[in-house]
């Protein structure tokens, strides 16, 4: 636990010193909300809030895990860390803690913008449910980010993460809210993990949870987890034989 906390602190300070990471992470989802939701009256305020909180957390999952791991893999520091007695679980726990910090900050900025612009009315219990849904529903995407980090090259990780982040967010309905996608996209949307994440968030905000959504996210988490473990072992085998 001490090693994980120390590693998390070092990573947080390192990332906080890079405005190129901090500013887009905190500002990008909130700017999307201002451009696409605040001027429009077609999306219900609570649905819009839930959608863009999820969008904010997804960005951290894809870039903190996917791009961050891919870049770290080729750094001498990462090679040195792998020679230390700290287990991979310790490093992953530290990275998850760092992602949680930045994910919370990004979601908080979106929440503040939503409260000021569209005035969503949620009780304290609904806020608590929405927070729990944000954390639990983000697990499959954290695992997908880890898989990207170990399967993609450092140069290929950023475009891959961008494509998945923006494409899945749009096709999952996180930009538009439920039922407002073009017909061709809407027919595909229910089979995407981001749509299931959206359904979980919307139900948490509105109070109508579907158990099938939780099961679907669990299946996605299992699949992405297997890909992440396979990618990690493949990387270990190719670099540390």
Runs in which pLDDT lies below 50 for 5 or more consecutive residues are none
Specify the overall morphology.
Answer: globular
- Bin the strand percentage: under 5%
Count of distinct structural domains = 1
Radius of gyration: 18 Å
Percent helix range: over 70%
End-to-end separation in angstroms reads 28 Å
> Main sheet, how many strands, which sense, barrel?
none
Number of helices: 11
Mean pLDDT: 86
Please report the total strand number as a whole number.
0
| Class inferred from helices and paired strands | mainly alpha
Question: Can you walk through the features of this model?
Answer:
- By secondary structure, this protein is mainly α.
- The chain has one domain (2-239).
- 80% of the residues lie in helices and 0% in strands.
- It has helices at 2-16, 19-36, 45-73, 76-81, 88-117, 124-137, 139-151, 154-171, 183-188, 193-206, 211-239.
- The two termini are 28 Å apart.
- The model has no long low-confidence stretch (mean pLDDT 86).
Topology:
Blueprint lengths: L1 H15 L2 H18 L8 H29 L2 H6 L6 H30 L6 H14 L1 H13 L2 H18 L11 H6 L4 H14 L4 H29 L2
Helix pairs in contact: 1-5, 2-3, 2-5, 3-5, 3-7, 3-8, 3-10, 6-10, 7-11, 10-11
């Amino acid at each position: 636990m001490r090693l994980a906390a120390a590693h998390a602190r070092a990573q947080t300070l390192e990332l906080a010193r890079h405005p190129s990471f901090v500013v887009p992470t905190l500002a990008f989802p909130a700017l999307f909300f201002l451009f696409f939701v605040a001027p429009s009256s077609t999306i219900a305020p609570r649905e819009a809030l839930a959608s863009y909180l999820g969008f904010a957390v997804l960005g951290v999952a894809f870039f903190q895990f996917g791009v961050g791991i891919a870049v770290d893999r080729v750094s001498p520091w990462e090679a040195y860390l792998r020679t230390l007695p700290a287990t991979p679980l310790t490093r992953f726990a530290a990275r998850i803690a760092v992602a949680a910090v930045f994910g919370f900050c990004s979601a908080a900025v979106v929440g503040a913008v939503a409260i000021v612009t569209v005035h969503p009315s949620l009780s304290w219990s609904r806020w608590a449910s929405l927070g729990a849904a944000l954390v639990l529903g983000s697990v499959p995407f954290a695992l997908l980010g880890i898989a990207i980090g170990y399967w993609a090259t450092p140069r290929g990780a950023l475009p891959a993460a961008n494509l998945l982040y923006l494409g899945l967010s749009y096709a999952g309905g996180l930009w538009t809210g439920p039922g407002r996608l073009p017909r061709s996209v809407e027919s595909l949307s229910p089979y995407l993990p981001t749509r299931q994440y959206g359904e979980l968030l919307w139900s948490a905000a509105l109070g109508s949870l579907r158990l099938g959504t939780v099961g679907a996210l669990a299946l996605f988490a299992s699949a992405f987890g297997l890909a992440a473990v396979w990618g990690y072992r493949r990387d270990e085998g190719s670099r540390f034989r």
